[in-house]
């Protein structure tokens, strides 16, 4: 099934399992179910308007209501549509939801999920294309989830809803219609903080998340033609991130490449690279390398948008340079 269908299924399954799970957001009951990917279509018909709740066009209102409802004992899923729009709800999410457990000494928790779409989709320009997952990963108290496959979309949403802390669930717009196998015979929950080895290899480790996992897989196929066996690791969650899985791989390969879609400066790739450089410097055969976009807003024009994209060709080029002892970074 598609990524969007799998995540919708995961939400429906959790709502059937637990009557305290509900969702709120803009136009969830419409024919398009909030977005063109129709992630909520049919859910209000099954669960009613009191559990699939249409809200005003106000992200701060959506998040504020979700925080209060979570404190009161329910498990809301707050649909913020685009991560860009989600910035309107940062105060409620970062200054309230993320801090309540700590400030109350564990007496109160905020078990909510903030769904936000990230990444570039053709022609969506500067205000609908941001990937700001690193921002949220830096906030104590937040869990950050970035699935890459339909099965993980379903399974990680289940884990996010069951988590007792606030979770920022970030799904790439270009993955909504991507198809993949989903085992409907199993509950499918995917543990938070557990990476997945997508492809095994002994020459180079590529660590990625969200849509970049698919591009890393494409790059690995090309690298194999050059005699380089790349191990591809899908982090799945950025906080907590599976440091042990990455370290095991890099100890084996001696080389690390971390591509990210967002701006190179201050991205989560820097966190992974710095941890590996500090902790595994004796095992490294070459300096760890990261890829990212130039520090500029995403343009509308397709030819300029392409200049901002990190693609499989970029990953192949960086991997070849890394294997040959060169350390140039694709975008500065």
Keywords:
332 residues; disordered C terminus; alpha/beta; five-stranded mixed β-sheet; single chain; seven-stranded mixed β-sheet; Rossmann fold
Explain this structure to me?
This protein has helices spanning 3-17, 43-47, 59-71, 83-86, 90-97, 100-103, 133-137, 150-162, 212-225, 243-253, 268-279, 302-308, 312-323, and strands at residues 21-25, 52-54, 75-82, 113-118, 143-145, 167-172, 196-199, 204-208, 230-234, 237-239, 256-263, 289-293. The protein folds into 2 domains: 3-175, 3-Layer(aba) Sandwich (Rossmann fold); 196-323, 3-Layer(aba) Sandwich (Rossmann fold). The protein is globular and about 60 Å long. The protein contains 13 helices and 12 strands. Strand 1 (21-25), helix 2 and strand 2 (52-54) form a beta-alpha-beta unit. The strands form 2 sheets. It has a 7-stranded mixed beta sheet, sandwiched between helices. Strands 7-9-8-11-12 form a 5-stranded mixed beta sheet, sandwiched between helices. With 332 residues, the protein is of the alpha/beta class. Helix 1 packs parallel to helix 8 (150-162), helix 3 (59-71) packs parallel to helix 5 (90-97) and helix 9 (212-225) crosses helix 13.
Uncertain ranges: 327-332
Give the assembly state of these chains.
Answer: single chain
Beta-strand proportion: 15-25%
The CATH topology of the largest domain corresponds to: Rossmann fold
* Number of β-strand runs: 12
Order of helices and strands: HEHEHEHHHEHEHEEEHEEHEHEHH
What is the architecture of the largest domain at the second tier of CATH? 3-Layer(aba) Sandwich
Based on CA inertia axes, which overall geometry fits?
globular
Structural class: alpha/beta
Number of domains: 2
Largest β-sheet summary: 7 strands, mixed
- CATH superfamily (homologous) name of the largest domain: Thiamin diphosphate (ThDP)-binding fold, Pyr/PP domains
């Amino acid at each position: 099934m598609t990524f969007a269908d799998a995540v919708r299924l995961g939400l429906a399954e959790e709502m059937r399992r637990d009557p305290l799970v509900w969702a709120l957001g803009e136009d969830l009951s419409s024919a398009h179910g909030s977005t063109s990917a129709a992630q909520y279509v049919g859910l209000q018909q099954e669960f009613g308007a009191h559990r699939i709740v249409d809200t005003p066009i106000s992200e701060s209102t959506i998040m504020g209501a979700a925080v209060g409802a979570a404190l009161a004992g329910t498990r809301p899923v707050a649909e913020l549509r685009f991560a860009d729009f989600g910035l309107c709800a940062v105060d409620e999410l970062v200054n309230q939801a993320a801090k309540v457990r700590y400030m109350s000494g564990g007496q109160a928790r905020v078990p909510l999920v903030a769904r936000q779409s990230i990444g570039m989709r053709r022609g969506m320009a500067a205000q609908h294309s941001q990937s700001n997952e690193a921002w949220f990963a830096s906030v104590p108290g937040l869990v950050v989830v970035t699935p890459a496959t339909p099965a993980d979309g379903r399974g990680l949403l289940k884990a996010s809803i069951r988590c007792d802390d606030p979770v920022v669930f970030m799904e790439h717009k270009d993955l909504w219609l991507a198809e993949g196998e989903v085992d409907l015979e199993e509950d499918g929950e995917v543990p938070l903080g557990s990476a997945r080895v997508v492809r095994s290899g002994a020459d180079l480790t590529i660590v990625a998340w969200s849509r970049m996992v698919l591009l890393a897989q494409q790059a690995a196929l090309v690298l194999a033609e050059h005699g380089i066996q790349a191990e591809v690791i899908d982090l799945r969650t950025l906080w907590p991130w599976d440091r042990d899985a990455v370290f095991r791989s890099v100890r084996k390969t001696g080389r690390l490449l971390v591509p990210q879609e967002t701006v190179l400066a201050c991205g989560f790739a820097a966190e992974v690279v710095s941890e590996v450089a500090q902790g595994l410097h004796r095992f490294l055969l070459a300096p760890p390398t990261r890829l990212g976009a130039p520090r500029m807003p995403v343009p509308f024009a397709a030819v300029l948008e392409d200049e901002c994209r990190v693609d499989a060709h970029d990953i192949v080029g960086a991997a070849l340079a890394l294997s040959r002892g060169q350390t140039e970074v694709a975008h500065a």
